[in-house]
Write a structure and sequence with these properties.
The protein is mainly beta. 0% of the residues lie in helices and 32% in strands. The protein has a domain at 18-39 and 68-99. The protein has strands at residues 18-23, 29-34, 42-45, 54-57, 77-82, 93-99. The protein has a four-stranded antiparallel sheet with strand order 2-1-5-6, with no helix packed on it.
Amino acid sequence: MVLPPTDPLEGLEGQAGFWYELRDAAGSPLYRRIVRNPIQVHIEVHEADTPSPTRRMVDAPQGVFTALVPDLPEAEVIALCSSPFTKAYGPVQPIATFAVRG
């Protein structure tokens, strides 16, 4: 399968959003894809006594999604990186890492 080229590996410090990275043993990104946040942390609630819907935090977000990355021999981990879920915007930080092999 041919993957899209990597998104920029540098220059995103302090940016808001969501992306996943393939990283080497030193933690340096080898491949990055900037994507829409696949983790639903807010839901829209329609209540009978209010004319407009409201947004509420999901207590325990869960779900399944696929992250395609190149098969690079120096790759050690895949990192999910996101802005804080509790604020509208904020700098991206790693929220989870997964070993690529073993």
